[in-house]
Amino acid sequence: MELIINLLINGLATGMLIFLLAAGLTLIFGLMDVLNFAHGGLFAWGAFSGVWFYSLTDSFTLAIIGAILTGVILGFITEKLIITPVYGNHVQQILITLGFMIVLSEMLKVVFGPNQMAAKVPPLLAGSWEFGDVIIIKYRLFIISIGFIVFGIFQFILKRTKIGLTVRAGVMNKEMVQALGINIKKVFLYVFMTGAALAALGGALMAPYSGVVYAEMGMEYAILAFIVVVIGGMGSFPGSLLAAILVGLAGSFMAYYVPALSLAVNMLLMAVVLIFRPQGLFTAKG
């Protein structure tokens, strides 16, 4: 029983980190219809900048804030220079954002150096609690809490506020929203920057969790994020949360019980979902 609890906590923590990355991707695709394959690069920049700010200030809070600001700035640059010219063309979006993903990864090596950077858990969140044979690592519980808090905040914003109503209305009918005097391009810019900030937050939290950051991590986790978005349903925020938890738990249990399938389990999970529910778990058919 103790082993099951530990594996559940590990899987939930991993799932929440993936959710933070996939949540930004869900916002950008679900609300803007933009396929942003550079999203993983924003995640990696969040991880590196978080480690750098922490080493500079010795404050984990300031490191998180610095990483989020880095994501916002890069999100602004990406939307203005990369995404704006290819709105409405998915093929061009895929090609140009894949290229920009490579640029972001190489720029990490230029700015921070080609070697890996070590990341440590802040003292306040270091260590664990023991309840009999159950060992609960503090930092993993912290990640799980942040994931649910972010989900709750964005669900409230999208469903209960005027900003959320404007965004959803802009997705349904851009021309009508423009006719009401709302600059929908500016709204979409803010949505894109928010998605980039979520990716950077996920990267900053992932760094202490994994203990090391490297330039190629963006592409690796971006693949997981796209798997989550597909499983959950393109553009579904609750779907991304559920899918991220499923992916995290599947990876945790498979890595322990069937290590040979630990790398393939996510693809298998996506294949099963697509066979029986091609539109994803939370998206209506058609």
Automatic annotation (TrEMBL):
Pfam families: BPD_transp_2. It is a multi-pass membrane protein. The chain crosses the membrane at residues 12-30, 60-82, 94-114, 134-158, 187-209, 221-249, 256-276. Its main location: membrane. The keyword Manganese does not apply. Keywords: Amino-acid transport, Cell membrane, Membrane, Transmembrane, Transmembrane helix, Transport. It is found in: Cell membrane. Belongs to the binding-protein-dependent transport system permease family. LivHM subfamily. This is Branched-chain amino acid ABC transporter permease. It comes from Psychrobacillus faecigallinarum.
